[in-house]
Amino acid sequence: MRLPSFNYLEPITLTDALNLMEEYHGRAQPLAGGTELLPRMKLGLTHPTYLMSLKEIHELKGIKSNKNELYIGGMTSLREIFLSTLLQQKFLAISEAAGSVAAPPLRNMGTIAGNLCQDTRCFFYNQSYFWRRGLKPCFKAGGNVCYAVPGSKKCFSVYQGDLAPALIAFNAKVRIEKKGSSRIIPIEELFSGKGEKPIVIADDELLTQVIVPIPEGIYGSSYRKFRLRNALDYPLVSAAAFLAIDSEKKVKSVKVVLGAAGPAPVIVKEAEDILKGKKVEESAINEIAEAAYKRAQMVDNLGLPASYRKKMVRVFTKRAIENAFNSIK
Amino acid sequence: MVDFVGKDILRVDAFDKALGSILYGPDQNIEGALWLLAKRSPYPHARILSIDTSQAETIDGVVRIFTAADIPGENSFGIIPVTKDQTLLAKDKVRYIGDAVALVAAYDLKSAKEAVDKIKVNYEELPAIYDPEESLKKGRILIHEKGNLLCSSRIIKGDIEKGFSNADIIIEREYRTSRLEHLSLEPEGGIGYFEDGRIVIIASTQNPHYDRDDVARLLGLSPDKVRVIQCGTGGGFGGKLDISVQGFIGLAVYHLKRAVRMVYSREESFLTTAKRHPLIMRYKTGAKKDGKLTAVKVDIIGDTGAYASYGLAVIMRATVHATGPYEVENVYVDGKMAYTNLPWCGAMRGFGVPQIAFAHESQMDILAHELNIDPIDIRLINAFKKGSVTATGQRLDHSVGIKESLYKIKEIRDKYSWSKKKGERLGTYIGVGVGSMWYGIGNTGVPNPSTAQVELLPDGSAILYTGAAEIGQGSDTILLQIASQRLGIAIDRIKLVRGDTLYTTNAGATSASRQTYISGNAVMDSIDHLEDILKAEASEQMDLPSSELIVKDGKIFSIKDSSKSIDIFELVKICNKNKVRVIGEGRFDPPTIKLDPETGQGVPYATYAFASQVSRVEVDTFTGFIKVLNSASAHDVGKAINPKMVKGQITSGVAMGIGMALMEEFVPNKTKSLKDYYIPTSMDMPEIIPIIVEDKEPTGPFGAKGVGEPALIPTAPAIINGIYDAVGVRITHLPANLERVIGELLKKEGA
Ligand SMILES: Cc1cc2nc3c(=O)[nH]c(=O)nc-3n(C[C@H](O)[C@H](O)[C@H](O)COP(=O)(O)OP(=O)(O)OC[C@H]3O[C@@H](n4cnc5c(N)ncnc54)[C@H](O)[C@@H]3O)c2cc1C
Ligand code: SF4
User: Fold this and answer.
1) CATH fold of A62-117+158-213, please?
2) ipTM confidence score
3) What's the whole-model pTM score?
4) Looking at chain A, which residues constitute the CATH 3.30.465.10 domain(s)?
5) Beta-carbon contacts of residue A297 (< 8 Å; ≥ 6 apart)
6) In which residue ranges of chain A is CATH 3.30.390.50 found?
7) A144 CA distance to ligand 2 centroid (A)?
8) What is the pLDDT of residues B592-638, one digit of tens each?
9) Are B87 and B233 in contact (CB under 8 A)?
10) Cα B112-B117-B123 angle, rounded to 5 deg
11) Which of B670, B682, B740 is the best residue to mutate to test the A interface, defined by the most A CB atoms within 10 Å of its own CB?
12) Ligand 2 within 6 A of A35 CB?
């Protein structure tokens, strides 16, 4: 399959990039590692007229920190995030999530901004032109049918990004910039919850930085991903857990987030009520797993049946919490 | 003294492949070549009422559109001469989703695509059949005029009822396997042009001479009017034995007399090329308390899909191998192959034996557990040895390394104390499984000769001519190693001319693990002939009778007086001066005896490869996820001409076998591409210990047999038996994917 034709822009400073975005009225699509965008272009799912590569903008690369916060530039590669000792020590779930994306060559190219801004996916949508041409476009393709849930009025495509759940578990934020302005929002607000258009970021905006507050006290975290093979596959379901405890081993705060369980990452809000102030015990973990199970929205549009993926929500929620607890040193 | 056999010589194509300088089918291009694209059927079964190409023809860039009416010869092809039932372009009927109905030639792919969409085909839909057993019932709609039974095969030995009445235990089970896709590195592709009054086709293939003959037949030409050249082929696994783009390219060049190009997309390759036959295998196995088998009764029903391809060979091979590598006195095997309206099935690494091995090895495993015998021991109790008689009545006199292979894997298993235990994480269990196999080298009970030529040149070098397709398995290197050892000339002094029907003669297909044994022998034979020529010439020059001469270390000596000698290349110079090329012609056809159509008795193969494997697997009972941890496979290859390459084959077989065991399944109408057809990644590989067993085959070149397909065969059974060992559930339907494993675990829990 070949890439359709496009015009190529390559700014070398962030200012230039933001200027270009304004100049082209949002028609300059940012190209980070290209590992998600280019396959979609090859399938004919999107046809940007201008691709604006961010790869020469060095100010968007790298990991920095101060006492309170960790800063990851939008163009930092997943490989760097996976291998960072700082992340491995203090933000294990994020490093684990980065290390579980696709496969090493894709992690060398793929970036954190691209990972967060990736589109939702569906078995009936992410197919080549050759296969789709006989069918009427579905909601996601601008039409008004859904093949995954016939008769439904909306799209159920799945957000399968690995990093977002882990970052949300750490209460991370993102900096979004456009010419002349900059705003910071919690990552969960990046997602609309709608399969048709899952990412809320304007056409002239760039995601430039991820900001993670450094937690205080004793804590652990974990990201667990269910997939068919040990490499290459997107999550069929995943769970990130963050767990902070006091000196008596009672839970001070907890956050559990599911991936691939709907058009946006799913925060299991019940977790805090169930565990806060208590010791980490199996019954409580089971209760959270049950709450997670109820929150997961799954339909038959990925590699395995929804019923089976849903069962796995329990298993992986438990594993994430257990591993997070065990990672506390 | 040169020494090339038994050495880890670097593959002769290693550098070119690593540097990317080899052009594969889809890379082939000629400036200005037209693109070809087929219009394909959207229905599994339908009558073609009319085809209207008029609108498509008006598209700019379209040069011509072909339909069945444009085929000048016989519009039927197929690799087995007696079952050529496939149309290049469908005439009256389409039989599966993907059957080609028209072919567009255009200046560019975009116009070709547009034209394909604009061709109007008027169909009358017919009821379709998707189940092979359903297909064989009377009164069903016919897929082919001659009926829905493609063929059957039967093996009868001893008295099956007596065998069961003597048994202390009888195990009855049904096993099923799935359609599989070959997934070679590159999809089908090639180019064609007209040159010197011939149609030239350069394509990815396992079988250039067959391609030539069937293309000529389609075009109503004599075979010498078609020249097929095998280009770089990054894998075939049986999927490139049938013709794909070759027929279309031939048809277009025939009419247009200009260069054309055709490349299948991966989706097209998935949709329209052969698959592995799914088999339903019903086994009834009887044994004594001590584990000795008394009777094996098997009923096999295969689904060949819409066309025959290699269906006949697959069902024959499956029936012949149904006992496994074991002595069984009473055998009754009945195999049938049925047509359905699903994608057609053909050869795939092992021709039915990987399927049947999954079944017979599961049976052995059940027996071992029921009788409380070590699974390796129960195989040793029954394994063939020299003098054993197979189900077809063939006595195995040489090279029967099955027991040795079992000893070898037992050694490994015991050395590392591989055994059943709990895994590290809660809910995980580790188990150990064993699988054995036998595999007949070459085609089943039919002549399948290979030919080769070796020419000496006056500059001290040689040329080896072979029709044997190199598909990544390494025959180029192996045949050169054999030639260089036999000639006593360094390997880099021998040039290879391979897979071009104008310059090489038929070596038969690169399939059935046959090229080392059969083409290797043809090379040996050509050098025998070459030496006869040299001796005849030397006898004139030296004035001695040929019978008194021997060839040694590049010279011809008198047996009586070793001071009398002449350098062979001196002789070549003399011959060349007299305008005589020094070229030896070789041929080898493995001695076989056709199987009796009623009882299946005969000698299907001249020799067999044997192997055993032990695999250690971890089962996650919460998710159904299976991880293969370690694997050791011992293969009796007769003699490893190149041990490193043999180990490479064994390792690749384990990799492919993991796919077959755990995840690969082509679901018609659902599976489209690599996005929904899962194959293992490097991260899914276990530690693999390849072990070479060498029980020399006296009729093989330097004692060699074959390993290409055997490498795959014991893997799935070893893994499936490992799962049973770990958690006590038996998977009888491949692949043992997550859902099936979880399903079985839940059933067991419920019970
Ligand atoms: C075989 C395969 C397997 C994969 N498996 C996984 C997996 O397991 N898990 C997973 O999460 N992903 C997976 N991916 C997707 C992808 O590789 C990763 O998500 C990767 O991190 C994407 O980053 P990128 O830099 O390549 O993004 P790109 O492809 O460059 O961009 C992705 C999207 O983000 C937008 N974008 C990029 N940068 C910015 C920015 N700074 N501001 C605003 N928008 C931006 C782009 O316009 C585009 O829409 C897989 C991809 C492939 C091909
Ligand atoms: S869920 Fe429905 S609407 Fe959404 S991409 Fe899939 S088929 Fe289209």
Assistant:
1) 3.30.465
2) 0.90
3) 0.95
4) 62-117+158-213
5) A156, A261, A262, A263, A266
6) 218-327
7) 10
8) 999 999 999 999 999 999 999 999 999 999 999 999 999 999 999 99
9) no
10) 130
11) B682
12) no
